[in-house]
Fold this protein.
Amino acid sequence: MKKLRRKIVLGVFISATVVFALTILIVSISLNAEITRRADTMTELIIENNGTVPQKIDIEKTDEFRLYNFNEESPFRMRYFTVQYDKDNHVKVNVDHIASIDEGKAVAMADIVKMSDRVTGDYSNYRYRISDDKTMVVFVDYTYEYNSVDLLTVMLMLLAVIFILMITVLFWFLSSRIVTPFEENARMQKQFITDASHELKTPIAIISANAEVLAYKNGESEWLNNITTQVTRISELVNELLTLNRLEEVDEISDIESVNLSEMTQAVCADFEEVFRSKQVGMNYEIQPDVTINGNTDQLKRLVSVLVENASKYVTENGELRVMLHKELRYTALSVYNTCEVDPDADYKHLFDRFYRPDSSRTSSTGGHGIGLSIAKRIAVLHGGSIEAIPSDDGLTFYVKLSNKLKIRKKGSES
């Protein structure tokens, strides 16, 4: 359940981060857009009043709505300058309302913006407007307002980081309560499987023994063979459920030793070669020699056996089996490919779910229970790796990654 807690907390962290980020982005864009709108309105107002900011009393009512924050102090507070051109292209400059710009710089800026095709725009820290007849260029300094928005954005980002951390920490403590019902439900399910499996073993053993006695007394028959076959299937299913249940109860392997995976894979393949030959299957092995990893010997053998046995069940007649094993820097890769009927509509990610069968070709008639691949996935995860099923046009590949970083640890040791 630790993984579930981490997923919940990670989900809350990502959700909170996305919400805060989008909120700050929307606020910042909206405020900058509003400041730009006000600047454009002010430049238009200055042009309409022949290069000066009018008194509030002189502004028409419609303009009051455009500049709803305009008041008696605005003409004295506004920082702007204008450049006017007469018909003889003589220049008249007004820089009385700004200290950082002289006449020469004002003319240079006006000449530059006049060459553009835009009526309004930004030049350095100024918002400008060119009159319709291009005889006047107005520059308004809204640097203070833009800087205020930038400061507000930074403050909101800092607050967002603090709130996200607080929410994440809070949910980390609350997540233990959130996952408790799921943890209890999972524990009860595992306990039920364990208890039911142990309870089933006794009647299975009795039925098997009685079938053997009847066969001894009355001779073998079709009915007794059917009973024996089904009892064997049930017994295997119970053992697989118990194996999977035990694997799911642990978060790490307690008995890790050096394993020659190359020799193990070759030995497992050799055990199933007769089955493949009976189906006239071409067998291709690309197994890198002396690939050794640290892991649980029994579990790794079970993993390889599940994959090769699965291939032996579903490989097509006159098909192909291809087993590849090689060692990379960080992981060891094992792939088992076999030709088979591939359902294009099936979701092969669910192959590792208990009792899942993607199509009618993978029925109980093949002898499987739908548990083996679940066991294989759990073993791969316990060995710091992963497993996936990759369908192709003519077959299916099981690709396994196993970590090369596990340390040797004997059962019961702390190191």
